[in-house]
Amino acid sequence: MTNSIKNSAVLLIHCPDKPGIVVAITDFIHKNDGNILYLDQHVDTERGVFFMRIEWDLSKFVIQREKIAEYFDTLVGSRYQMTSQLHFSDTKLRMALFVSKLPHCFYDLLARYECGELNVEIPVIISNHDDLKHVADRLGIDFHCIEISGENKQQQEEKQKELLVKHGIDFIVLARYMQVLSDGFVKAYPQRIINIHHSFLPAFPGGRPYHSAFERGVKIIGATSHYVTAELDAGPIIEQDVVHVSHKDTVDDMVRIGRDLEKIVLARAVRHHVHNDLLVYENRTVVFE
Amino acid sequence: MTNSIKNSAVLLIHCPDKPGIVVAITDFIHKNDGNILYLDQHVDTERGVFFMRIEWDLSKFVIQREKIAEYFDTLVGSRYQMTSQLHFSDTKLRMALFVSKLPHCFYDLLARYECGELNVEIPVIISNHDDLKHVADRLGIDFHCIEISGENKQQQEEKQKELLVKHGIDFIVLARYMQVLSDGFVKAYPQRIINIHHSFLPAFPGGRPYHSAFERGVKIIGATSHYVTAELDAGPIIEQDVVHVSHKDTVDDMVRIGRDLEKIVLARAVRHHVHNDLLVYENRTVVFE
Amino acid sequence: MTNSIKNSAVLLIHCPDKPGIVVAITDFIHKNDGNILYLDQHVDTERGVFFMRIEWDLSKFVIQREKIAEYFDTLVGSRYQMTSQLHFSDTKLRMALFVSKLPHCFYDLLARYECGELNVEIPVIISNHDDLKHVADRLGIDFHCIEISGENKQQQEEKQKELLVKHGIDFIVLARYMQVLSDGFVKAYPQRIINIHHSFLPAFPGGRPYHSAFERGVKIIGATSHYVTAELDAGPIIEQDVVHVSHKDTVDDMVRIGRDLEKIVLARAVRHHVHNDLLVYENRTVVFE
Amino acid sequence: MTNSIKNSAVLLIHCPDKPGIVVAITDFIHKNDGNILYLDQHVDTERGVFFMRIEWDLSKFVIQREKIAEYFDTLVGSRYQMTSQLHFSDTKLRMALFVSKLPHCFYDLLARYECGELNVEIPVIISNHDDLKHVADRLGIDFHCIEISGENKQQQEEKQKELLVKHGIDFIVLARYMQVLSDGFVKAYPQRIINIHHSFLPAFPGGRPYHSAFERGVKIIGATSHYVTAELDAGPIIEQDVVHVSHKDTVDDMVRIGRDLEKIVLARAVRHHVHNDLLVYENRTVVFE
Fold it and tell me: Does residue C217 share a domain with residue C104?
């Protein structure tokens, strides 16, 4: 689906499943002169949880933007114990890009940014090396080289956080950033840090997954984009894809073939995040599309 | 999604898009004590057409089954110029299987039938050869060999139609049935005849698509399941899938590789049809899943 | 590739890589009036190992079938420390089918057998239940129900082995056979027992992989066919494939969707084994195709 | 496979199939102290044509580079009516990039170029618009805007050819270049112009394939890279890939989804061309990999 209407609101909702939820929500929007553009609903029957993404045109909606969340919670949400997020489609999220030396995901995201494919602002790039500074420079994006060692991690992460706050960052994309973020850092950005891991998780978490894939003799390799949580490579999976390999492919071949996979799987995750298509519930994502 | 509740109703709807449709439909169900199980909605913004599949639990629904269609049309459908179909999930559709000599799709569907994978009754198998009669016999399915030649087609199709009527057939599956059905026959079963074509349509319609694929040197081959319409291989596409081939693959290899594709693409289409997941609009299918 | 010539020999070779190997082998065949039909060669540069599959027409070959292995080893193999296997394309391998209650792979292989797709003989089917006896009966295949419990395993495996010997079995296919074979049993059939596991190994080995996949929230599920070794689900991988799933798919949906994958991935592995396309080296397969 | 050895030669050969060809070729290399690195051979049994790609280490080869082609033709090639091409792995091909306004393939190839993924030199970029000049400028690549209209085509193509000659261009990549090249131009670069078409050819040749795909209601869209020949979108196919779409996807969605496909399918084709993996025979490619 494409979002052609600029002045729309998106509600992402989950709550215990009960009869009447769909009517309650759609009625709230309709009675207040909102025109429903998209409605996607799903019930996890095993857990008894109701999920919905609903988007509506705000042009004739009688409730003011800043009052919608309050009205919805009072009139609908609280009755059904809903957890909800409200987004507006004309908001441009501010994204920070973290990168190390491997440039393929970094180039790919910046090319999409430059072409206008990604509906975000990228005010700042943070790296533990300065190899890619020239790329940031030519696009006029603020670049900070913040080297990380075993000793200075906490202190350097403080510097990173200051930059994120200064630039009003909404979410972070780790474009093959080769450092593990501390728990404290991760908790400051819940479901707002997207990582790309170069294996089909849960196979081959941690370092050197292509080497492990080669050793195990698998016939497919994969890439996984996920939200970062405290446990390494164990956060909610957003997107995965795979490609076939053969006995002829060396580790170097897998690295090469995997690059295209990583680029696309990361870009799709960023798109879903930006389009407010994602809900997380018990370490699983609901991806409305 | 799985249909675990047996006593449910499914409405498939399309109509000109307008504000208020979702509310009108969900309100009708909710007010009459139907519990909505699934709701999938889609707007074709280019054509301005609204599509919906909605399924609800009938166990407490206050309107009797045989009255639902009438009440819905009167109270909701007519106001929005809706075209709708009503189905009940406990209805077992009656399917006729047409086959020639190639057995792979035939065996595959019958194995699914025997395992209980397909929620249908197959009371009759019709073929223009008697090669596969023994398979029908051992499953106790009525088998009719009706040979077709250029001269006797009309007359033989009459015999086929009599069998279909006699067995109360709801829909027909052509499991590599190597005869073109006449326009008259096709029109008698609109959106109720499913064919499998061994190419990724619209590439290579008509006969010998694997030969044509080989000649053209394509790197992928495909299979397409579609509803049969008067124009050959031009009906609404239900499912498609492909597989990679290489210069090493001969026409015979493509035939072999394609068999697995044909089996799966046809079986998926049958499943969608049986589960009332399909709407056709202007020669395109809407596949709710 | 298709094997159209019936009177051909296949050599599968591996040895330490050195200059001159290709010439030595092809020269041996050519000088003795063998016409090379297929040659596929591969060097694992990391391990320094040379692999080859070579097939040649025997119709004018001057060395008698029963002498080829001896002549080859003496004149070529021993000089290069080759490990080689010799097969003849007109040999029909004898395959035993092991099954429990889940019938989809079982039906699929038997349908391929009945259609003549698999170039094997299946003289015997062994199960720990008698649910599928009627299917064996109607095809006239010997069926033995050998129930396994914790106590009687060794004794029952002896019965199985007797049957395998009696029927002159070359290799065994576990078509969702829900018992773990003992080490002793496995060692009696090295690289001659093919299993299908319903996950993309090494993710989700052991029992209930679809449940684990659901819990982890993966976006793809897979199937893996492999040779059985002493360590559970850790043998050399022959074939893998995957299919995309979404948050909408329940465990039951994954089970259903996975069935088609399991069928195809197992059938491809059987085909490779039968066509002598497989070499195993350090727990990895070389699949010549 | 990866090409780690820099000082190697590659022979691409096709000829009428006969016994003894493999031995003749490998013997020629081995006797002259060349170490065979890769050998891939294929027989098109329908046409009776033998194909081979063979690569060998030149470090001890006794025949000088500039003499290899002559010696090979005299001693081997002419006896078997071979058509052969000789390449050296340390030659860096010179590639011209043609582009219009759509930037995704253009950015993607340049990012690969900048990362060192493509083993080529790109001395010149030619466009019929100047929109992307700034991207060429920042990489220091010569950029020429040569506008094409109905009247000036011949004259403008002359300018293009002059630039190609001046820059010593070996092959041309059309990265969504929206102009049809004249027959004369195409004939000047046989099997040296690579195009990306945004459909799975032969479906939807010509303009606006995503619109046609939407109209036809296909469930997969594709991209095809091919050598350009006189007939539009009918040249030998090098690579194809597809992605699933649904009824929810508008033409704009297909355009967006297709971009990633186009990028990858074009990049793979360029890689194959650069690695001398491609042979063309009767409008079909043999892709050695």
Answer: yes
Catalytic residue flag (residue D44)? no
Residue of D nearest to C27 (CA): D23
Averaged pLDDT of chain B: 95
Is any Cβ of chain A less than 8 angstroms from the Cβ of C204?
A: yes
Subunits in contact with chain A (3 or more CB pairs closer than 8 Å): B, C, D
Question: Nearest residue of C to residue D27 by CA position?
Answer: C23
Alpha-helical segments (H) within chain A: 21-31, 65-75, 104-115, 133-139, 153-166, 183-188, 209-216, 251-274
Q: Which residue of C has its CA nearest to A249?
A: C44
Neighboring chains of B (3 or more beta-carbon pairs < 8 A):
A, C, D
Give the model confidence (pLDDT) of D265-275 as tens digits. 999 999 999 99
- From A193's Cα to the closest Cα of chain B, the distance in A is 30
Between helix A209-216 and helix A251-274 the angle, nearest 10°, is 130
For B51-76, the pLDDT digits (tens) are: 999 999 999 999 999 999 999 999 99
First vs last C-alpha separation in chain D = 7
Q: Which residue of C51, C202, C217 is in closest CB contact with A284?
A: C217
Q: Are residues C65 and C177 in the same domain?
A: no
Provide mean pLDDT across the span D84-96: 96
Name residue A38's beta-bridge partners: A55
- Which residue, D88, D118, D153, sits at the end of a domain? D88
User: Whole-structure pTM over 0.90, yes or no?
Assistant: yes
User: What is the CATH number for B42?
Assistant: 3.30.70.260
Q: Around Cβ A48, how many Cβ atoms within 10 Å?
A: 10
The answer to whether the beta carbons of residues B196 and B270 sit under 8 Å apart is no
C-alpha A5/C-alpha D45 separation (Å) is: 58
Q: Is residue D2 part of a domain?
A: no
Say yes or no: B219 and B102 in one domain. yes
Instruction: Please name the member of A22, A35, A36 whose beta carbon is closest to the beta carbon of B36.
Output: A22
Residue finishing a domain among B55, B88, B121: B88
pLDDT (average), residues A6-24: 94
Report the pLDDT value the prediction gives residue C46, as an integer from 0 to 100.
83
* Chain B partners within 8 Å of C3 (Cβ): none
DSSP type of residue D289? -
In this predicted structure, the answer to whether residue D102 has a pLDDT above a threshold of 80 is yes
Number of structural domains found in chain B: 2
Residues B274, B176 share a domain: yes
Contact D26 C30 (CB under 8 A): no
Chain C residue with CA closest to D56: the answer is: C19
Q: What's the Cα-to-Cα distance from C181 to each of B229, C93, C153, D112, rounded to whole Å?
A: 53, 22, 9, 50
CATH of the domain at B97: 3.40.50.170
pLDDT tens profile C50-101: 999 999 999 999 999 999 999 999 999 999 999 999 999 999 999 999 999 9
Measured in angstroms, the CA of D289 and the nearest CA of chain C are apart by 11
Range of the domain at B148: 93-287
Chain A residues within an 8 Å CB radius of D2? 250, 252-253, 256
**Nearest Cβ partner of C26 from D26, D40, D45?**
D26
D201 touches B at CB < 8 Å: yes
**Tens-place pLDDT, residues A106-134:** 999 999 999 999 999 999 999 999 999 99
CB atoms within 10 A of CB A81: 10
Nearby residues of A263 by Cβ (< 8 Å), 6 or more positions away: A104, A105, A108
Q: Does D5 touch chain C (CB under 8 A)?
A: no
With a pLDDT cut of 70, the percent of chain D lying above it is 98
